[in-house]
Design a protein that fits this description.
Layout (H helix, E strand, L loop, with lengths): L10 E7 L5 E7 L4 E4 L6 E4 L8 E4 L8 E5 L2 E8 L18 E7 L3 E6 L3 E6 L5 E9 L2 E8 L4 E2 L9 E2 L4 E2 L9 E2 L6 E2 L8 E2 L21 H9 L7 H5 L2 H25 L4 H11 L10 H25 L9 H7 L9 E8 L9 H9 L3 E9 L6 E6 L5 E3 L3 E6 L2 E7 L5 E8 L4 E10 L2 E3 L4 E3 L2 E7 L11 E13 L9 E12 L5 H6 L10 E20 L4 H22 L1
Parallel strand pairs: 10-12, 28-31, 30-32
Antiparallel strand pairs: 1-2, 3-4, 5-6, 6-7, 8-9, 9-10, 11-12, 13-14, 15-16, 17-18, 19-32, 20-24, 20-26, 21-22, 21-25, 23-24, 25-32, 26-29, 27-28, 30-31
Helix pairs in contact: 3-4, 3-5, 4-5, 5-6, 5-9
Length: 582
């Protein structure tokens, strides 16, 4: 390659590849206000007004997908390329895209001319700040680009042949800001994403799921041990623990009996008449179950024992209602014991292979889960895309795809929401957003109604989960892929009594993984111009099912007949022990 050399015009050549594997030849002139035009067969120099910013143009060597590069003095990396996602070349009647640029020229420092292989001529005048050259007017084989306002979320602060640039961080442009972006107003709920059109209210844009941890069983799973622990447990941690302790009220009753005993002794000594003490002694003798009414003191002890047995019965009744865990509230557990973790349930969890055979009574819950209609909701947050830009397709095997028109779209407050009913649970959906706009964040939600089979005592719970994705200070990558793995969770609940049926509940739990969320690394290794090359944003959501399912089983620690028997046995033992002590 020949070049024009002199001491004031040092020249160097750069040959490289971009992400689309297209090779480009770039000639840069340093410290001189000149433009270097480099078609393959000649070099043309054009002097510019020294007051203009230094720029250099270069043409691609690859005849397919040719671009013109524009660079600035400070760095050999291109500022932008032509064509780009804001400035496109229309196909001609003689040849479809892509065209090859065969020649380039400039004049008056404010216009660029391109000759493409159609044959056709493209004239691109430099636009004023706040505008870019994109509207095409044709005059025969000549296409002249006219200035239009910058698209939302971008700006242009000086005369340029190229596209408008993304707003700086912390600023926005809804299309009316002119050449300068406006500073955002942010707080805990108002966010300003990269490439913002306006602030986004994030109050309802959150992540949540239904993957609550399954409780663990108590360290003691025998009702007799639980009964004794709660009867003779006296904790002074708080007022509630004292008030629900049977031992505390037994001590109160014993204290009252001692006071009554002292009062009777004082009355018998101080009173001239023995009628009143004898009345109390006779009265308390009727309560004596220890010595069969022989001693009035035994009546006082029997009353104290009655208080203990009463609280034991109350605890047993409350404990019987602490099952199943889905119907047990915190208030109900707290009213039964000082330990608010107390449950009348033995809990186990295990992973099971889907390929294993199912029991006959488990088949209905699997059928309900497999037939549940799941809705996918995709939200593109802080974007200039509209519903007119959306094309949805279902990707099939071997690179095939079919158009998918069964979806709803809504654009509101900078958020583009697309809702679609999944055709099946294992599917790959592709969302194509055509246009040069940016996306600040992404949110995926799954919802499904509850389904019940009363004859099989099976119920599929309502599905409602969302996951929010974004990278601080970065726009969403142009080709994100989100992998969603759906896992079945089956809860088996045995009846509290032998005659009650075992019930089954199920739910889908999705887990999300993404390949990459931003092109920050691409821009840092390549150049910022790559931000303005792709002509669409393509989101692929791949939904698969896990090979395993989670099985949670709960059974009562003690059924009603066992609770009644243990309570009566405890009361009988208490009376027998009191008689033995007597």
């Amino acid at each position: 390659m020949g070049t024009k050399q002199n001491e004031s015009r040092p020249v160097f050549a750069v040959i490289g590849e971009d992400r689309w594997k297209k090779t480009y030849l770039l000639v840069v002139i340093l410290r001189h206000p000149s433009i270097c035009i480099t078609p393959l067969d000649h070099i043309l120099w054009r002097e510019l007004d020294s007051s203009q910013d230094f720029q250099a143009f270069a043409l691609g060597i690859n005849p397919y997908g040719t671009h013109a590069y524009v660079v600035q003095l400070e760095t050999p990396k291109p500022l932008f390329v032509f064509p780009n996602n804001q400035q496109e070349i229309e196909p001609t009647r003689l040849q479809s895209l892509p065209h090859r640029i065969v020649s380039l020229m400039t004049w008056n420092s404010h216009s660029v001319g391109l000759v493409v292989d159609a044959p056709a001529v493209i004239l691109i005048p430099a636009s004023l700040p706040g505008y870019y050259s994109a509207k095409i007017e044709k005059y025969g084989a000549i296409a002249i680009y006219k200035s239009i306002s910058c698209i939302p979320s971008t700006h242009q602060v000086k005369r340029s042949f190229g596209p408008c640039m993304i707003c700086p961080l912390g600023s926005k442009n809804d299309g009316s800001a002119g050449e300068m972006c406006v500073k955002c107003t942010t707080n805990d709920t108002l966010w300003c994403f990269s490439g913002a059109i306006h602030e986004i209210d994030m109050t309802n844009i959150t992540s949540y799921d239904q993957a609550n941890p399954y409780p663990e069983s108590l360290h003691t799973t025998e009702f007799d041990d639980i009964l004794l622990q709660n009867i003779f447990q006296l904790s002074f941690e708080n007022r509630h623990c004292v008030l629900v302790s049977p031992l505390f009220w037994t001590c109160v009753a014993v204290g009252c009996c001692i006071m009554i005993f002292i009062m009777i002794q004082l009355l018998s000594r101080c009173s001239k008449s023995q009628i009143r003490p004898q009345f109390f002694e006779k009265l308390f003798s009727h309560f004596d179950v220890i010595s069969e009414g022989k001693h009035w003191l035994g009546g006082l002890i029997s009353l104290s024992l009655l208080v203990l047995i009463t609280f034991v019965c109350e605890f047993s009744i409350s404990f019987a209602h602490l099952y199943p865990i889905e119907e047990t509230s915190f208030e109900k557990r707290q009213s039964a014991s000082c330990d608010d973790r107390l449950l009348n349930a033995k809990l186990t969890s295990s992973l099971q292979l889907l390929s294993t055979l199912e029991h006959d009574n488990e088949k209905p819950i699997f059928t309900l889960l497999n037939e549940q209609n799941i809705t996918l909701i995709v939200q593109f947050i802080s974007t200039g895309y509209t519903c007119e830009n959306v094309i949805l397709q279902q990707n099939r095997d071997r690179g095939l795809s079919i158009p998918f028109t069964n979806f709803n779209c809504l654009k509101s407050n900078g958020i583009l929401t697309i809702t679609t009913l999944l055709p099946q649970h294992v599917v790959a959906m592709q969302f194509n957003l055509n246009g040069p706009h940016f996306v600040g964040g992404l949110r995926l939600c799954f919802s499904a109604p509850s389904v019940i089979n009363t004859n099989a005592y099976s119920k599929v719970q309502q599905m409602n989960t969302c996951q929010f994705f974004y990278t601080p200070n970065q726009t969403l990558t142009r080709d994100p892929t989100v992998n969603v793995k759906m896992t079945k969770v089956i809860n088996r609940t045995a009846g509290l009594t032998i005659h009650e049926n075992t019930t089954y509940t199920g739910i889908w739990l999705p887990s999300f993984t993404v390949n990459t969320l931003s092109d920050e690394l691409l821009f840092s290794l390549g150049a910022e111009y790559l931000r303005y090359v792709p002509k669409k944003t393509t989101l692929v959501v791949v939904i698969t099912e896990s090979e395993f399912y989670m099985k949670n089983t709960q059974e009562p620690i003690a059924r009603q007949y066992e609770i009644v028997f243990s309570t009566v046995l405890f009361a009988s033992k208490s009376v027998i022990l009191s008689n033995d002590d007597k």
